[in-house]
Amino acid sequence: MSALILDGKALAKSREQQLQAAVKKFQDGGGLQPVLATILVGDDPSSATYVQMKINACARVGMGSRFIRLPAATTTQELLSKIDQLNKDPDVCGILLQHPVPEQIDERACFDAITIEKDVDGVTTQGFGQMSMGEQAFGSATPAGIMTLLKHYDIPLSGKHAVVLGRSPILGKPMAAMLLNANATVTICHSRTNNLAALVAQADIIVGAVGKPELIKAAWIKDGAVVVDAGYHAGGIGDIEKAGLENRVAALTPVPGGVGPMTINALISQTLESAEKLETC
């Protein structure tokens, strides 16, 4: 068996061409240029790199971007004030608060301050609630990108046992909800899960989202499974050990080039969707 490579980089490139045409059509029809506002608090180099990648993606499809950089000493109240300004700005269609923020900031309060109409990164409690109930809302960007990737490659989800490793409110939990909404049977594992290897061994679909390099061992994964690695660590290592999997599993995402490009693609796609819904954009 030779695993199907779920190439997020290639799919994102193809979708960007479609988005570029859609943005042009939107503007030709009288809409203003969609604008994504990105807030970065502090000077973490990895976060700065991620923000620049998002700005570059906006430019490639003809969307505007607004970069707000705040000092590391910014308070919760100061950040809330900036978010409020962007909520009220008719030119801004989407708001992204780069995670993580400095520890003195109440990140959840700031996420939830983003109006749901502009929550294109799918980080608000209200958005999560609506999405998990099957109602209209923007999904968290990484899980939304993964779902788009699985759909593109015709990976069957209904009736399958999916194991999600990680319970982050912007990755693991929304990923589990999206899979459940797609009629998968879902198990969520985390740092206090007992018999982790045995649970992984049951999975038809595995999503690694623990943030620890190669925590999930290749030997735990059964033949024929679909392996999605949402982790990235120095040296191109993911959360899932890949040794030998390419000859045993049905499909897997590369690291890098799998999930990452689809996260950014979901973000800009949802920003365009927001622009189409907001009368001011």
From TrEMBL:
The keyword Hydrolase is assigned to this record: yes
GO terms under biological process: L-histidine biosynthetic process; methionine biosynthetic process; purine nucleotide biosynthetic process; tetrahydrofolate interconversion
Source organism superkingdom: Bacteria
Record-linked CDD domains: NAD_bind_m-THF_DH_Cyclohyd (cd01080)
Keywords: Amino-acid biosynthesis, Histidine biosynthesis, Hydrolase, Methionine biosynthesis, Multifunctional enzyme, NADP, One-carbon metabolism, Oxidoreductase, Purine biosynthesis
Binding partners and assembly: Homodimer.
NCBIfam families, alphabetized: PRK14192.1
Its biological purpose: Catalyzes the oxidation of 5,10-methylenetetrahydrofolate to 5,10-methenyltetrahydrofolate and then the hydrolysis of 5,10-methenyltetrahydrofolate to 10-formyltetrahydrofolate.
Keyword Oxidoreductase set for record: yes
Every Tetrahydrofolate dehydrogenase/cyclohydrolase catalytic domain range: 6-121
Domain Tetrahydrofolate dehydrogenase/cyclohydrolase NAD(P)-binding: residue ranges: 140-277
GO MF entry, a single one: methylenetetrahydrofolate dehydrogenase (NADP+) activity
Pathway: One-carbon metabolism; tetrahydrofolate interconversion
UniProt family annotation: Belongs to the tetrahydrofolate dehydrogenase/cyclohydrolase family.
InterPro entries per the UniProt record, alphabetical: Aminoacid_DH-like_N_sf (IPR046346), NAD(P)-bd_dom_sf (IPR036291), THF_DH/CycHdrlase (IPR000672), THF_DH/CycHdrlase_cat_dom (IPR020630), THF_DH/CycHdrlase_CS (IPR020867), THF_DH/CycHdrlase_NAD-bd_dom (IPR020631)
Catalysed reactions, as listed in the record: (6R)-5,10-methylene-5,6,7,8-tetrahydrofolate + NADP(+) = (6R)-5,10-methenyltetrahydrofolate + NADPH; (6R)-5,10-methenyltetrahydrofolate + H2O = (6R)-10-formyltetrahydrofolate + H(+)
GO CC terms, sorted: cytosol
UniProt protein name: Bifunctional protein FolD
EC number: 1.5.1.5, 3.5.4.9
Transmembrane segments: none
Binding positions (NADP(+)): 166-168
